[in-house]
Specification:
A hairpin with a 2-residue loop joins β22 and β23. This protein has 642 residues and is an alpha/beta fold. The longest helix is centred in the middle third of the chain and has 31 residues. It starts with a strand and ends in a 14-residue tail after the last strand.
Length: 642
């Protein structure tokens, strides 16, 4: 029985919005890493969950007319339901509203407070409500939050602070002496660069006078815990810290997966929190890049947040998983387009993997009625027909890459072996050998090696495409009982397919995709049928009278007694406007917060349902459903639209 352990975590996802492509990638990447470690004889535990406290949750809940808990329940359920949709096999799903988690947060806070590393002080600072944190001047870009593009609010209040500065030199030394602590290496350099500047103590509380939705400090009933000091503790609370068996078994071998925008809390706050609390430091942090959609970073404000459920419905779970793991170089940014995923499916999956699988099984069916005839070792050696060394090379390269989360390289090693098998077929021409009975032993040996090669491929793709792996193994009559996958040791032993094995007629693994056949039907129909008459011509001077501006929706709520109208607060840069928009049937308040819109800024004020409307936002009618206009890149509010 193995003694090797591995604990994998995703970040717990913030429930201020529904899941998108970035969440799907992190979950799938962690699932792939977990499955690989299981193949490498590790006992694993895989944790994911949702982060449910803080200002933004309160704002989102209010916009929907719900309590924070009701809203958190709703969005957390979306994240939980997404996991089986992506074939992600986590062991536990944690929520920061879970009573056990709350108790552990209070234990950790009390431990650090009792040691003297938390103190009370007056503070005046620059607070970004979007990030829910204070900023230093040096961290701002042109005086604005680097993530939200808005000037932070000056807040003066009394709060509790964590002495992070006390541990700065310790953390620098820990990062430098543990080269595997932060991966890839560029993020290690990024953290060390940040740590060259004096590390400010961290404000870890929020007064209940302005925020009650959080975990009450165990040493002061008038304050709640800063959301990061709450959220990060989930990694140990889920394991039953301090005395739980899971904590004792897995914590020493922990690897966190996060996106690069949260490297600072995970690479600085979290290890210092652990050190201050006397808890062993996690083993490593794996940091990935962003997914850009059509060339732009995913952003709710520009409407390019790809829905992973819709993508899997269109292309299939394994195709989606494969694309994400193959297309992104772990640590760097990657681009998601419809054209790219279709190209990957057609070239890599339908052509390379699917055709090779079908080609080999079809030949075995044609020449030997589906029976594996075995091989002649002397013929194999004399004619150099063994694929064993090529398979071993693929397995070694796969293992080396997957250990480092270089998923694209691991897949590349498999696909290099598939290419080798195709060249092997073309070189040895089984169809020509089949014409002469004298070549039967050579043909049997060739087909045996090819079927063995498929066995290796079917096993190696398991972490990335488990459904396809099982489908191939079923056709090869080699389904794995009990745990459902083959270990790397089992895969590496050449000659596992038994003589006399009957192989099924191959089904198509990945049919080719024609782009025009997967477009939503209403798109094609609308293009043909929608031909509105043009209005009377105007001059450029007429058009110039309309002052169109970019705006960002910062709040939204339904208007009582109206099922059509939403009351919006729209940031126009120099000012905030209230706009009443008739979009409630097509957009919930939480869907529109953060969206960038086009505003008719010089429209005369009007009163609708007793509310003043200071402008109008632009939209189009798509089969009686309104669709808001927007931009393909994020734009600062208040820019003229020409």
């Amino acid at each position: 029985m193995t003694t090797k352990k591995q604990f994998f975590t995703t970040p717990i996802y913030y429930v201020n919005a529904k899941p998108h492509l970035g969440h799907a990638y992190t979950s799938i990447a962690t699932d792939v890493a977990t499955r690989f470690k299981q193949m490498d004889n590790h006992e694993t535990f895989f944790l994911t969950g949702t982060d449910e406290h803080g200002d933004k949750i309160v704002q989102a809940a209010q916009a929907q007319g719900n309590t924070p808990k009701e809203y958190a329940d709703q969005i957390s359920t979306l994240f939980q339901n997404l996991l089986p949709k992506l074939n992600v096999k986590n062991n536990h799903f944690i929520r920061t509203t879970d009573p056990d988690h709350i108790n552990v947060v209070k234990k950790v806070l009390s431990k650090i407070y009792d040691s003297g590393d938390i103190y009370f002080s007056n503070y005046e600072g620059l607070y970004c409500f979007g990030c829910e944190r204070f900023y230093q001047e040096r961290e701002l870009t042109d005086g604005k939050c680097p993530d939200h593009g808005k000037a932070p609010t000056v807040i003066k209040e009394s709060n509790y602070f964590f002495k992070m500065s006390k541990y700065q030199e310790w953390l620098i030394n820990h990062i430098k002496t543990n080269p595997d602590f932060i991966r890839p290496a560029q993020y290690k350099k990024e953290l060390l660069s940040f740590l060259k500047e004096p590390l400010e103590d961290l404000c870890i509380s929020r007064p209940k006078s302005r925020l009650t939705w959080g975990i009450t400090l165990p040493f002061d009933e008038d304050y709640v815990t800063y959301v990061w000091f709450d959220a990060l503790v989930n990694y140990i609370s889920a394991l039953g810290y301090p005395d739980g068996e899971l904590f004792k078994k897995f914590w020493a071998d922990t690897r966190h997966f996060v996106a690069k925008d949260i490297i600072k809390p995970h690479g600085i706050y979290w290890p210092i929190m652990l050190k201050a609390a006397g808890i062993p430091i996690y083993k490593g942090l794996n940091v990935h890049g962003f997914w850009n959609v059509k060339g732009s970073k995913m952003s709710k404000s520009i409407g390019n947040v790809t829905d992973p459920v819709k993508v899997t419905d269109i292309y299939g779970i394994d195709s989606f998983r494969y694309f994400l793991m193959r297309e992104m170089v772990f640590g760097l940014d990657a681009n998601f387009t419809e054209e790219t995923i279709i190209s990957r499916i057609n070239a890599d999956l339908a052509n390379d993997l699917g055709n090779t699988f079908s080609r080999i099984l079809s030949m075995n069916l044609r020449y030997f009625d589906g029976e594996v005839k075995g091989y002649d070792s002397k013929i194999e050696k004399d004619k150099g027909l063994s694929l064993s060394s090529d398979a071993s090379l693929a397995i070694d390269e796969f293992k080396k890459a997957m250990e480092l989360c270089e998923f694209h390289k691991g897949i590349g090693a498999i696909w290099q072996f598939i290419s080798t098998m195709n060249k092997y077929i073309d070189k040895n021409k089984p169809w020509a050998l089949a014409k002469d009975e004298a070549n039967i032993r050579v043909l049997e040996t060739i087909l045996y090696n090819l079927v063995e090669g498929l066995r290796v491929v079917s096993c190696l793709i398991y972490p990335i495409m488990p459904q396809t792996s099982f489908k191939m193994q079923k056709a090869l009559s080699m389904e794995k009982e009990n745990k459902g996958f083959y270990t790397l040791d089992e895969i590496s032993a050449w000659g596992q397919v038994k003589k006399g094995t009957l192989i099924a007629k191959p089904d198509s693994l990945f049919p080719r995709i024609e782009k025009d056949k997967i477009k939503p039907k209403e798109t094609a129909g609308q293009t043909k049928m929608f031909k509105p008459a043009l209005k009377e011509e105007i001059t450029i001077d007429d058009f110039a009278k309309i002052d169109l501006r970019t705006g960002t929706v910062i709040s939204a709520e339904k208007i009582e007694k109206s099922n059509k109208l939403l009351k919006l607060k729209v940031d126009l840069g120099a000012q905030t406007r209230q706009i009443i928009a008739g979009i409630a049937k097509n957009y919930n308040p939480d869907q529109i917060i953060g969206k960038q819109v086009i505003v008719v800024a010089n429209l005369k004020e009007a009163t609708l349902m007793g509310e003043t409307s200071q402008g109008m936002i632009l939209a189009t009618d798509n089969k009686k459903k309104l669709v808001l206009s927007g931009f393909d890149k994020e734009i600062l509010p208040g820019n003229p639209v020409k």
